[in-house]
Structure formats: C-alpha cells, structure tokens
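During the no-cost extension, the postdoctoral fellow (Dr. R.K.) reprocessed legacy sequence entries with the updated structure-token encoder. One reprocessed record is reproduced below for audit purposes.
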Amino acid sequence: MRHKTLALLLFVAVVPLTACLEKDTNTTIYLRNDGTIEWAVMDQNVRSNEEDSGKRLDEERTYINDILGGTDRLTRSFRALGGTNIKSVVMRDRAPFGTLRSADFEHLNQVWERTFKACQIPHRLTLKTDGLVTTWTMAIQVEPEPEKTDECESDALEALVSESTEHLRLVLESGTFESATGFTLVGKNTAELADINSDTIKKTSGVVVLSLTWKK
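Re-encoded structure tokens follow.
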C-alpha cells in the first residue's frame, strides 16, 4: 500500500472518480526539448456500475457532458495550476467511454511546486541542464505526515488524488534517459514510477528522492 502523502503528490489514485464509475486510467507526462511538458490523462473502459439503469445512464451522461464542456475536476485543476493549451477529447462517446485530457506546463516542477507549497510539505526541486544533459531531482519529506491545510484540500488540488493513477510514466519526445532513481526505465525514452511503500520510506528516514537524467 502506498504512503498517503506520496500518493497525493505523485498523482496516484487513492479514491475513484465517483462512487459508481469504473475506469482504466493512464497518466503520461511528455518531456519536450525546450523544457515544457504535456500532462495527459487517458481514461478507457469508463462505465457506471450502478444497478439502476436510469441512475447508470445519468452518471455516465454527467461524466461525458462535463468533459465535453470542460467542467470536469481534472480540467478545472489544469486551469487552476496554470496549465495552457488545455484539451478534452472524447475518443468513444458511448459506454464504455474513452477520453483524453491534456494540458501544457512551463516546466516539470510547475505542478509539484504549487502542490508542495499549498500542502506545506518540506521538499527540494531542482532542474539543471549542462549542455545536452538535463537532470531533474525531487526530494520529499513524507514522514512525519504534515497536517492538511485548507489550500491542500482546494478544488485546484483535489483532482490530483482522484483523477490520476498508479500507471504514471514520463516519456521523452526525443533523446534518451541516462539514469533514474525511483523510476524503472522502459527502453530508452520511457520512465515508469516504481513502487514506493512504507518500508522503503522507513529505510530513507522519511525522505523520498526521485531523479531522472536525460540527454537530448
């Protein structure tokens, strides 16, 4: 079982979208050569498990209409966190539904920095480039767990919990990953978040360090 604070900060789902919607979700952060990122969330096989047919249709209709209208929680959080070029695409418009939502951000640390500050979590974020090589490092103090603040519970951040997934990966648009800490490299251009549990956190005195180095 994942640590609660770490789950929040790394966009790992700990509660479902709603009580009765089932879905398969994959979250991908695309790293561009200019340092900007595209954060994309794909939902597949979305359907309500409500037994009452009328309630089931209403729940599914609400889900798809919110996405079409750009009023779903994830899209609202993209806006609140400074995302641009926000897109919502319906790939399948009947149950089981398929959707893709995405937004651009100025750099890899933009969303995390906003989240850490709002939740008052001790952290260190660095993004350094030396010639063709870039290294990103994130260190988080996850134990003892901080008390939640009003800002941490705001609409701008709540979708980070409920709209994302354990299947988080970072993908280079070009170039190759050279090394990784806290990630599993899949081929040369994909890094998947490794499992970080309570035992791992205890061994590092409550500090989790994630790092990626890539070459253009």
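Residues 11-19 have pLDDT under 50 and may be disordered. The two ends are 36 Å apart (CA to CA). The remaining legacy entries will be reprocessed before the final report is submitted.
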